[in-house]
Structure formats: C-alpha cells, structure tokens
Amino acid sequence: MSIQAGMTAKRLQSLKTFAQKLDVSFDDWTLLHQALTHTSYANEAKDPAIHHNERLEFLGDAVLELATSTYLYKHFPNLPEGELTKARASVVCEVTLAKRARILEIGKYLLFGKGELATGGRERSSILADAFEAIIGAIYLDQGSEVAFCYVLTQLKEDLLTVKNGQALQDYKTLLQEVVQKKADQTIQYELLSEKGPDHSKIFEFAVKVNDVIYGIGVGKSKKEAEQQAAQQALDKINK
Question: Would you please indicate which residues are annotated as catalytic (active-site) residues?
Fold first, then answer.
C-alpha cells in the first residue's frame, strides 16, 4: 500500500475507527484518506502528493445514481420514467446525503485548510454531501461494485422507503403553494441564489421565500430540482 502525504499512523488509526462506523473494510486506506481530504487542505499544503476528494466525488456520484436507479427500476416496475426520475432526485439530493453524513459524523474525520475550517466547513451541507459521495467512490474502487451498491442501499434505506410510501413522488412546490394559499396575505417567491459549474453540469441553488422571508434553500442539477428541494425544506419548517 502506498502512503499518501499526510497519512500518519494517527490518521490511519482514525480512519480505521471511522470505517467501523461505515461497516466497510478497506484494503487501501489511502482511498478513504483521500475521500476525506477537502480541496482546501490540499491547496494550503501545496504538496502534489496530497490528493483531495473531488475525483472520488465524481465517481461516487455516478455509483450512487446507478445504485439507486437500479433499485427503483427493479422495485417499482409500474412507475414511468418521469416518476422514476422524480423519485431518484428526491432520494439522491444534498439534503439527504448531508443528513447521512452527519449521522456518520463524516465532518469529524474530514481534513480542512485553516480558512475553510474557520468558516464552518465541518458543518456545511454541500461539503458533507460531497464527502459522502467521495466515500462511495472510494468503496467502489477498493471493494468493487457489489459492496458499493450494498453500502448505498443500506445508507439510503429509510429514504428509499419514502418512495414506497409515495412521499417521494409528491410535488413539493404544489404542496407548499396549497399550504401558503390558506392565508390570503401570503405570497411565495423562488429566487436563484447561485449557478455554478460548466454548461453540461451546472449546479443551481434556489431559495423559496414566503412573504420575503427565506423558508428553504435547495440545490440541484436543474432549476426544477433545486426549487423542489427548497419547497420540501420549507414544508418541513412549516410542519415543525
């Protein structure tokens, strides 16, 4: 096993402890080490031997999508393509992945640069969701597709149940509209907060406002997906 820069004996022991939380064993611990190395750490170190987790995130995103798509295809034979897409988007989203990351305490094991650490990187949902995907990529490379798929489905078990119960197929924007319109003086507005990435792979961030107060923020690979996530978050807030 090659040792990546920054992979000390203490770090290795920390990774082994974390792997027990994942319930996954690794042959090459440098893959898990890389999955938990944020770009800010690699950039501040200025050491070409230190690799951050963006490439593993790219791979993990593909594995995550294939695993969930296969599960939905096999378990919901009567759902048309559009409903399958909607169901997958509701499960494979930043909110869900960040939630799983927090349960696993991924932030505790991430390596950050001083700047990112000082601005709350350990708790940032986008970073946690990306790290969750990077871990999937690491598992896929180290243990193969079968173990990686099993890991994904185990982690997302509760969220996939929402599809079975029909919750994931709901139009959250419509539901939010129905709730808000019960009061005549309330209005809804969706606002684009950011648009990142190349044209073929953009990430959109939207806020939903009720009477100019932000009730939810959503992130997605399309404007529609981001708005749906924002509406879902707003509904959760209202219901609480």
Answer: 61, 133
